[in-house]
Amino acid sequence: MKILIIGAGAVGFSIAKQLSTEGHDISVVDGNPKLTRKIAEKLDVSIIAGNATSPSVLESAGVQEADMVLAVTTSDEVNIVACILASKYSNNGKKIKIARIRNSEFTGSKSIFKNNGFCVDHMINPELIIVETILKILETPGATFAVDFPIGDVVLRGFHVPEDAPLVGLNFSELEDIEYTDSFLIVYIQRNDEMITPSHSTTIMPDDNIFVLISKTGLPYFLPMVNRRADEVEKIIIYKASRTGMLLAERLENSPIAVTIIEPEKDRAVMAAASLRNAVVLHGDATEIDVLKDAAVEITDIFIALSENEQTNLLTSLLAKKNGTKKTIVLTNEPELVHIINQVDVDVVVNPRLVTANEILQHVRRGQILSIAKLGDSEAEAIELIAEEGSEVVKKPLQKIRFPKNTILGAIVRNNTMLLPKGIEAINPGESVVVFTLPDDIERVQALFSKKK
């Protein structure tokens, strides 16, 4: 597939890197010489330096022949204009245009562009995705990672395993004797920097991070096994009243969760207080202990740092943790910092650029793939896809299907219900399946589930 990427920043680089390794013909346009030089040095893709709102620049990048245009600069306006221009170049009417848009006036349910799409087929709002992710974590006591799959009642959750968790010391053969094990599957264990695919002899250790595929109905039974003390979230603090912070606070307006916002800029604090009915808004700096105490940090379940400055986010979350907050969520805009921040006393790290790249890749890998999600800061990916009639995986004993070495068959959704592989003999056509694999094996996995040509 020929793909034109507008923007060579963190999102564009991540997408170009992934898609070029998968064999796509990639062209990248950006007006920043520093960014284009970086991509030229590290990736085998075509680079065009110039303004993406210029038709001549887009033509030089091959917009006429492009099957897909991904506009992912930091400017909503540039992304929209680039998609409008791209729509004027015919490719048998099949050119797909995807734009990264941060302004919720364009992407929200009341958007005036909802029906005509502004010549954009898909608008990806990273802030909305971040808010949805945080809400799922708030809804699951003790969770540090959360993904819901489109079909059935299947969810993927990540947990940090404390020392006193009932799971600690058990190996996977012993886990099979526990009640409700037919409703969950621990697919990976992240131990320090190592991602472990568990075997029967693998033992769960304190401080492991586990990724669990589980049915929504089975979740309440699993939670006490991983954390005795994980209670429902009753109070959170949000720092700051950024666009993401306000979106999150608005979504929680009618929930039982008490929300306090700390905002250092007075005008923004006043504006936040005027637009929110139930949240408490404090004007102050969360790096000051007195301000944290005014916000009742000692009885707070989760402190969520959502400013544009990752250093401030990290500092405020560490102070909140030291002064009584049970759990912290930190936003960072730099993908390279995700792994580093995960090494300190932070429970959850969210990165808008990574989630944007993942969301866009999901649209690129269209067809029978329903959704794709990276597991934390690891290389492993969870994929939900449809088993097509005539594909290699259907109506065949599971043990005879030759999956790639590092691929795990997680679950099958049959009649809207999650089934673990050990409980079934074969996959039927049209059923959705959750598979865990590495980026290099995605093409092979997709081929297994695709109708043979």
Automatic annotation (TrEMBL):
Nucleus among keywords = no
Keyword terms, alphabetized:
Ion transport, NAD, Potassium, Potassium transport, Transport
- Describe the location of the RCK C-terminal domain by residue ranges: 144-228, 370-451
> PROSITE patterns given for it?
RCK_C, RCK_N
GO MF term (any one): potassium ion transmembrane transporter activity
Question: Which segments constitute the RCK N-terminal domain?
Answer: 1-124, 233-350
List the GO terms this entry assigns under cellular component, sorted alphabetically. Answer: plasma membrane
* Pfam family name, one: TrkA_N
The cross-references to InterPro entries, in alphabetical order and at most eight, read: K_uptake_TrkA, NAD(P)-bd_dom_sf, RCK_C, RCK_C_sf, RCK_N, Trk_Ktr_HKT_K-transport
PANTHER family, sorted: POTASSIUM CHANNEL PROTEIN 2-RELATED-RELATED (PTHR43833), TRK SYSTEM POTASSIUM UPTAKE PROTEIN TRKA (PTHR43833:SF5)
Name this protein carries in UniProt: Trk system potassium uptake protein TrkA
